[in-house]
Amino acid sequence: GHTGYKSVHHLPTNRGFEAFTGFLSGAQSYFASDRWKNGTPYDNTEYSTYLYGNDTLHAVANHPPSVPMFLYLPWQAVHLPHMAPPDWKGDDYRGMLWAADVYVGALIQLLKDKGMWDNTLLVYSSDNGGTIGGNNYPLRGYKRTNWEGGMRVAAFAAGGLLPDSVRGTSNNIRMHIVDWYTTFCHLAGVEDASDASPVAPLPVDPSDPAKDIYGNTSWPAVDGVDVWEALTNPGKYSGDDNALHSSLVLSSQVVLNGTYKLLVAERGDTHQSHYPFENGWEQPNGTWVQPINQTCGLVDDVFAHTVFKPCLFDLATDPREEHDLSQEQPELLNALWKQLNTTWLTYYHSRTPAHMLGPCNSKCANAWLKDHGGVPNHGPQCGVPGCT
Length: 388
Prior knowledge:
Blueprint: E1 21-22, E2 35-37, E3 40-42, H1 48-61, H2 92-113, E4 122-125, H3 148-151, E5 155-158, H4 179-187, H5 228-232, E6 247-251, E7 254-257, E8 260-263, E9 281-282, E10 288-289, E11 311-314, H6 330-344, H7 354-357, H8 362-371
Antiparallel strand pairs: 1-2, 2-3, 4-5, 6-7, 7-8, 8-11, 9-10
C-alpha cells in the first residue's frame, strides 16, 4: 500500500517493473478483494502472504538464471489488522510471521535450486519500529513516534554475494533505508545513481520557509550512499559507526549529528492517532514504564511551534533516550535546531506535472474502476484509459 497512485502512470508497471501484485491504499484485510494485478483491479481474496508468496515463486521459477533480476517483496504481514493464515491455530501475530517466514525459506531454496543464490543479495528490512504485537525493547517509543523505537529498525542481509567473513556478524554502522537504492545501482553497474535534475533548483530563502525551490522542472538528487563496502569490509571504518552519515535529518522534528540526536517534538506532526504511553519504554513482558517529569519533546494538540521544548540526547551513552541534555548544552541544541531548519528548506513536496499525470476525471475514473472490479477512489484518477 501507499505506493502513490493518482495517475495510471504511477503504477509500478509504468515505473519500470515488469509485473505487480498488491494493493494501493493503506491497511486492509488480508483477505480483501481490493487488489491490483499489473495495470487493472484484481478480484482475489486469497490470504495476502500466500498470494504474494506464490506469485513471487512463480516469477522466480520462470526467470532465466543468467539474466539479472530485481525483486521487491513488501509483505503485508505483520501490519494491522492482525489476521493469521486460515490454517493457523494460535496467536495471530505469530501466525502472520510464520507464513512470511515459510515463503522466504521457499524463495531462498528456489534460488539455490536454480543456481542463482551464489550471486544474490537479499535484504530484509522493516520500514518502522514495532507497534501493537511488536516490541522495541530496550528502545523508547512505538511506530509513528520520533523516539528510537519508532525510527531505528532491524534489518539483515544474506545471499551468496556476501563474503564469508561477514556472515553471521552484526554491523552497527549507521545506514538509512534510502541507501539501498544507491547500493543496488552500484551492484548493477550504474555509475551515477544520483538521478540529479538537469535544471538546478532555486536557492533557499531562510526568510521564506514556504518557498518552493523546485517548481515543475527541478528535483533534489538522491542523497543515499553506497553501503556495500561498509557491509562487506566493516573493519575499514575502525569502529566509526557514523562514517557513512555524520549527520542525518530523519523528519522535520529529528536530526542526528554524530552521536547526538535532536528531537524537537513528540509526537510527530503526522495527524495519526497517538497515545501518551507511547512516550515510554515497553518492557519484554508488554508492560510500559513512563518517564518521570518529562520536560522535553512536549507539544500541544494543535502542534503550535511556539510551545516546542526540544530534547537533546547522546545516543552513544544514552540509546534509551532517558537523559535530556538540552539544559546542559544549549549551544549544541540551538546549532542542531538551526541545522534541521536550514536543511528542511530543501524538502521536496511530491508533485507530478499535469502533462505527466494525463487527464484527470474522477467520475470517469471511478466508473472505470467499478467496471473492472475495483473500488471507487481506490485507484488512479488520472490517465485512466478512455477518460478525458
